[in-house]
Amino acid sequence: MRAQSFAAAMLLLAVAGCAGNQGTQPQSGDTRFVAGDGKITLFEISDRRPAPAVEGETLDGGSATLAAHKGKVVVLNFWASWCAPCRAEAPVLKDIAAKTKADGVEFLGIDFKDRRADALAFERSQQSGYPSIFDQPGKVALSFQGTVPPAAIPSTLIIDRQGRIAARALGAVTYNDLLSTVTKVGDER
């Protein structure tokens, strides 16, 4: 019994350590948090909806908008520093962003429900090579409600050259799936 209590205490401590102590992030057992399997759904061209306006202050104090990338394929990634799957997929996003930049593909991160200091530390360690909007209150995420559940972290959207939502992944994406889908959307004319 004592060993079971110790094991339970250690598990609780490990979960608390992963989650951090920020009151605004989803907590264990929070039914508003949506986990995904990372599979990418590619929408038929006739079923695509226009992406909502996306704009905001970036983590480095600048500004970014989706409209600034009109005519390009854009990969939007919703992430947070406290999210273990986000940390796991960060190298995939970084590599694909670098690999597809010459093809006119742009990446834009949306840092969701995070502390700025934690997000900046994450960005410094990952060196993603693309900007992230600081969306602490979740306004950008809410604008995609109906396409992405507001608490689905990480989530990735691929916006086509016409500004429509071409593909969606809920959960951490894999390298081959993301590269393949970005290439398909990029090859559309």
Provide structural commentary.
With 189 residues, the protein is an alpha/beta fold. It contains five helices and eight strands, in the order αββββαβαβαββα. The chain has helices at residues 2-19, 84-100, 116-126, 139-143, 175-187; strands spanning 40-42, 55-57, 63-65, 73-79, 105-112, 132-135, 155-159, 165-170. The strands form two sheets. It has a six-stranded mixed beta sheet. A two-stranded antiparallel ribbon has the order 2-3. α3 links the parallel β5 and β6 (132-135). The protein is globular. The N and C termini lie far apart (65 Å). The relative contact order is 0.22. The model is unreliable at 1-33 (pLDDT under 50).
Offer a concise description of the structure.
The chain is of the alpha/beta class.
Layout of secondary structure:
Elements lengths: L1 H18 L20 E3 L12 E3 L5 E3 L7 E7 L4 H17 L4 E8 L3 H11 L5 E4 L3 H5 L11 E5 L5 E6 L4 H13 L2
Parallel strand pairs: 4-5, 5-6
Antiparallel strand pairs: 1-8, 2-3, 4-7, 7-8
